[in-house]
Design brief:
Blueprint: H1 3-26, H2 31-50, H3 56-78, H4 85-102, H5 106-132, H6 142-155
Helix pairs in contact: 1-2, 1-6, 2-4, 3-4, 4-6, 5-6
């Protein structure tokens, strides 16, 4: 991993921790926090590209943002009670960074991140059921989305 990618990953992880705390407590992902996460990633990745990185990486980042955000938006439209709007918005910066790092492997990376997120959410629900003796009425999906993306970025 290049130093500039490590800085962007650190930015991403720091914001995902903060967003996860809010999501777990309030079942909301505040727009200003998600927007700040995205703005920071765009700035860091643009600086990386200007300092000698591959200019196509920014195009892949845009494709990732549109693809991941669009995929979750379609799910949201089909099953509005099954996914929150904040999760859809969070997919945009996650997709941006996945696209920037994965490049031509974008589709596989996004689908892997989503699969890992779903598995983590399922495990979280099962553990919660065992601890509380019942199913949770709502699920904070943001932490799982973030963890899935970070795992893909670390192992990409």
């Amino acid at each position: 991993m290049e130093p500039t990618e490590a800085v962007a990953l650190a930015w991403l992880v720091a914001w995902l921790v903060a967003l996860s705390v809010v999501d777990l407590r309030r079942r909301r992902l505040p727009d200003p926090m998600v927007a700040t996460l995205l703005a920071g990633l765009v700035a860091l990745d643009s600086a990386s590209t200007l300092s000698g990185g591959d200019p196509l990486s920014l195009l892949w980042a845009c494709a990732g943002a549109v693809s991941y955000g669009g995929l979750l938006w379609i799910v949201y439209l089909l099953v509005p009670s099954g996914l929150g709007g904040g999760d859809v918005k969070l997919a945009v910066p996650l997709g941006w960074q996945i696209g920037f790092v994965a490049g031509t492997g974008l589709a596989t990376a996004i689908l892997t991140a989503l699969l890992v997120a779903c598995l983590l959410a399922l495990v979280g629900q099962l553990v919660g059921r065992l601890l509380r003796g019942g199913w949770s009425a709502t699920l904070a999906f943001g932490p799982s989305l973030g963890a899935g993306a970070v795992l893909v970025l670390v192992f990409a």
